[in-house]
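Key idea: predict the complex, not the pieces.
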Amino acid sequence: MGHLSYEESKAKALKIILILAAITFGEVIFALLGKGYLIEGFKFPLILVAGVMILMSIVKAYLIVYEFMHMKYEVPGMVKSVLLPVFLLLWGVIAFFSEGNYWKGNRAKSVNAAKTKIEMKEKAGMQGSLYREADTLTKNI
Amino acid sequence: MATDTAVLHDNKVDWSGGEKKPFKASYGKLMMWYFLLSDAFTFSGFLIAYGTLRISMPAWPVPDFVFQTVPFFGTGYPLYFVTFMTFVLLFSSYTMVRAVQEGARENKNGVVAWMFLTVIGGLGFLGCQAWEWTELIGHENMSVTRNTFGTHTQNGFYLDENGNIDKSEPVIAGESYLIHKADFAAGHDHDHGDAHGDDAHGADAHGAHSYDAPGHYKEAYVDEQGFIHRKFKVTEGEMAGVMVRGLDGVESQPYEEFGPKAFGALFFFITGFHGTHVLSGVVFLLVIMLNVMTGLYVKRKNGYEMVEKIGLYWHFVDLVWVFVFLVFYLI
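Result:
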C-alpha cells in the first residue's frame, strides 16, 4: 500500500494477480509446446524451453516479492540486507551443477570401462554378453 | 500469544523494538524477513541438490509422463492437475493481499473474510497434494527408495507373449515407462484402476497374461516383489541385440529397470517440506484470524500488522512453489 490509496492498491493487487496468472498459463503452454505435446512433431530445444521457464519464474518471483510482499516500499538498506545474500546462491547453482556434470562424465567413463571389459571377455570366447554389468553401473545409483 | 500480553500489560517492555526502528520496519516484520531469507536458503539447498543429481544421471523420469493424472479424468493430461494446484495457491496469495489491505484501513470484517478465503485456498492446495501423493504411493508404488518410473536409453521394440518383437510397441530412448505390480494373491494382474489406464503408460501387452509367481516370462521379468519388468529388444545403436544377465544369473533380453532412486526421495522431501510450510501457514492463519475476530488487533491500532506478517509468510510459500513448480514439473 505505502503511498497508494485503498482503491488504488486494490486495483493494483488485481492487476498483479492477473499478470501472475497469465505468466503461469504462458509457462505451461510454452512447456507443452516446447516439449512437443501440442503440435505433432514440433519441438523447441530443451535449453530454450528451460531458459524461458527460468526467466518467467524470476519475473513471477519479482512480482510476488516486490508487489505482494511490499518490498517496493521498504527502505533500500533493508531491501539489500534481504536480497543480496540470495545472490550467493548463484554460485551454489554454478558450482553444484558443474559438479553434477562431472559425475555424469565419471559414470560414462565407468560404462566405457565396463564395455571394454565385455569386449575383451567376448574376444576370449566367453558365452553371452555382460551388458548387465554396464547397465548396473549406470542405473542402480 | 506472548506478543499480545506484552503489549497489553506493559508499554515500556514490549516486542515492538522500541522507538528507534532499524530500516524503519517493526521488529516482527524485520525478523519475519530474515526468517524467510534463511528458509529460502533451505529450499534452495534442496532444489540445487535436485538439479545436481538430475544433471548427473544419464536418464531421468520425464515429468510430463510421471505427473499426467487428473482426478475424475484419468491419465494422459501432462501438467494439467499441477497447473490447477498452482492457480489455487496463487489466488490464495491474492486473497491474502486483500486481507492485508483491509487490515490497513482497520476493517475487521474484511480481514476475517479474506483470511478465511486464504485458509480455504491453502486447504485446497493441501488436498490436491494429498491426492497426488496417494496416486504416486498407492497406485504407482513409488517410495522414498523405489522409483517405478524409468526412462529408456536405447531404441527398440517390446516383446510379445511369444518372445518376438512387437512392431506396434516401439521402445524409444528418452521416453519414460511405469513398472506395474502383479498381484500374486489374486492370481491376476493388479488392477490399476481407471485413473492410470494401461494404454497411456504403455503396459497393455501383459494384460492377457497373469503372473502368479516371480520369474522370467517371455515378455517380462517378474521380480520377487511382483514388479513386472517388461522385456524389449534393442534394435539400434551399438547395444543392438544385447542380452543381459541379472543377479539371478539368468541371461535374457534386456528389461525395464527401476528409475534413479533419488527421484522419489527428492520429490517426497521437497514437496513434503513445502506442504508442511503450507500446513503450518494454514494453522497460523487460523490462529490470527481468530485473534482478529476477538478484536485483539483493534486495540493495537497498528493497522493489523500481525496480518501483514503472516501475509509475508504466506506469499513466501507461494514464492517457493513457483520454483518447485519450475524444477519438478516444467523443466
